[in-house]
């Protein structure tokens, strides 16, 4: 891990502070343009947390994400000359849409660079908001490099997704709303990538409110940055929480996070998918995995029974006061959402993928399916594999996907299949 600046215009200059007063000014900027998103009570998550839980529904914001707050404040504060030259940004989705929407509202020409494999709905939405979209490269980092080249060549202003005081202040307006909507709030769980949202909320709320950042463990740049006292580059792995998959903390947000002594925890892929599933089933809210990171912290450790829930956060939460979970975005491709739901069901013990070897004769598959039916499980798909190593000439392997009622029922299904003489193995 190498200490590096995170892209400010002058990395040698002192890191600007972001104060509550900055956030208050930002709120005046966005007041007539953006939604004051609601908070939604959740009995299901309250049961996990052991205290009253409210969900800050920022996924219902314009463009489907909190990103538009910071983008609008940043663009509104440009000089007339900067507005005339236009702006350029880079993003895989939410920041792109936020910049595009804000630029259209302010009459600023915007160009957004996105990876070649960016989600089609996010690309279409960005174009629909009026921005020019340039696709190319394999990653957001590639897109950032191209955007910076355009900024230098054409004189456009590069709009960083999180490492700028205006962006941090804009995101912090969520914190002001939370304190007004839940006056006795004790803890706020915040999905965290580069840290703009985390720092903004931390700057906005009173000192007695505990703000906790939540990162995907496969892309957790804040723990090492907090340990080093400065941004460091970390290698990120592929994660379903692509919206917070950032390899380096921003210098501006990190300074706020450190000053406020904000802790950052990490969550697994299983916890993320279970959170997305739980939010859809119990709260009736469709949230992308990155936006559900705060909720995932409440189900952390629940990938297998018994449910541990809030134990994962230890001493960080005050159970005597309400807890607010920020749902930061809802822009998820339906195809990805289907995969996440299936992953979440598997993590919750409600989905089995089995392979069984059978004699390849009429009636044998029907007998196996009959055994499963007797358990009350629901067979979703059946597939045959008739060639491959380990299979005799008169054998077939059958892949079966089964929906169950939970861990205990899954164990019962597997036991009954094996008791009937089949060598079932989980896949």
From TrEMBL:
UniProt family annotation: Belongs to the serine/threonine dehydratase family.
Keyword vocabulary terms for this entry: Lyase, Pyridoxal phosphate
The UniProt record lists the keyword Ribonucleoprotein: no
Lineage: Bacteria, Bacillati, Actinomycetota, Actinomycetes, Micrococcales
All residue ranges annotated as the ACT domain in the record: 353-427
Cofactors: pyridoxal 5'-phosphate
EC number(s) on file: 4.3.1.19
Molecular function terms from GO: L-serine ammonia-lyase activity; threonine deaminase activity
Protein name listed in UniProt: threonine ammonia-lyase
Role noted for this protein: Catalyzes the anaerobic formation of alpha-ketobutyrate and ammonia from threonine in a two-step reaction. The first step involved a dehydration of threonine and a production of enamine intermediates (aminocrotonate), which tautomerizes to its imine form (iminobutyrate). Both intermediates are unstable and short-lived. The second step is the nonenzymatic hydrolysis of the enamine/imine intermediates to form 2-ketobutyrate and free ammonia. In the low water environment of the cell, the second step is accelerated by RidA.
Keyword Lyase: yes
Catalytic function, reaction form: L-threonine = 2-oxobutanoate + NH4(+)
Superkingdom, taxonomy of origin: Bacteria
PANTHER family: L-THREONINE DEHYDRATASE CATABOLIC TDCB (PTHR48078:SF6), THREONINE DEHYDRATASE, MITOCHONDRIAL-RELATED (PTHR48078)
Annotated InterPro entries: ACT-like_dom_sf, ACT_dom, ACT_ThrD-II-like, Ser/Thr_Dehydratase, TrpB-like_PALP, TrpB-like_PALP_sf
One biological process term in Gene Ontology: L-threonine catabolic process
């Amino acid at each position: 891990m190498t200490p590096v600046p995170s892209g400010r215009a002058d990395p040698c200059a002192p890191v600007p502070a972001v104060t509550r007063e900055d956030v208050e000014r930002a709120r005046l900027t966005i007041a007539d343009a953006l939604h004051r998103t609601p908070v939604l009570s959740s009995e299901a998550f309250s049961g996990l947390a052991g205290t009253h839980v409210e969900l800050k529904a920022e996924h219902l914001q314009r463009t489907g994400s909190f990103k538009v707050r910071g983008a609008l404040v940043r663009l509104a504060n440009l000089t007339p000359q900067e507005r005339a030259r236009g702006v350029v940004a880079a993003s895989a989705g939410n920041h792109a849409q936020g910049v595009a929407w804000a630029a259209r509202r302010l009459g600023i020409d915007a160009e957004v660079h996105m990876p070649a494999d960016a989600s089609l709905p996010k690309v279409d939405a960005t174009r629909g908001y009026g921005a020019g979209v340039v696709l190319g490269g394999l990653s957001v980092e590639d897109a950032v490099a191209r955007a910076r080249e355009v900024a230098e060549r054409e004189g456009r202003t590069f709009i960083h997704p999180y490492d700028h005081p205006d962006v941090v202040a804009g995101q912090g307006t969520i914190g002001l709303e939370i304190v007004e909507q839940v006056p006795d709030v004790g803890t706020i769980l915040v999905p965290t990538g580069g840290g703009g949202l985390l720092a903004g909320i931390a700057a906005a709320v009173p000192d007695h409110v505990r703000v906790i950042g939540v990162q995907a463990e496969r892309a957790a740049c804040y723990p090492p940055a907090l340990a080093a006292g400065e941004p460091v580059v970390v290698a990120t792995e592929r994660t379903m929480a692509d919206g917070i998959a950032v390899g380096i903390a921003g210098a501006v947000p990190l300074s706020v996070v450190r000053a406020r002594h904000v802790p950052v925890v990490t969550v697994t892929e299983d916890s993320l998918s279970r959170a997305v599933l739980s939010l859809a089933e119990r709260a009736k809210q469709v949230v992308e995995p990155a936006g559900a990171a705060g909720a995932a912290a409440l189900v952390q450790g629940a990938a297998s029974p018994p449910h541990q829930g809030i134990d994962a956060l230890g001493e960080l939460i005050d159970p005597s006061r309400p807890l607010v979970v920020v749902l930061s975005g809802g822009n998820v491709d339906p195809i990805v959402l289907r995969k996440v739901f299936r992953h979440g069901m598997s993590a919750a013990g409600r989905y089995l993928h089995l392979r069984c070897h059978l004699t390849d004769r009429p009636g044998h598959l029907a007998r196996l399916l009959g055994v499963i039916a007797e358990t009350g499980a629901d067979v979703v798909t059946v597939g045959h594999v008739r060639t491959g190593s380990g299979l005799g000439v008169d054998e077939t392997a059958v892949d079966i996907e089964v929906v169950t009622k939970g861990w205990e029922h899954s164990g019962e299904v597997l036991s009954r299949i094996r008791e009937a003489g089949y060598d079932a193995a989980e896949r």
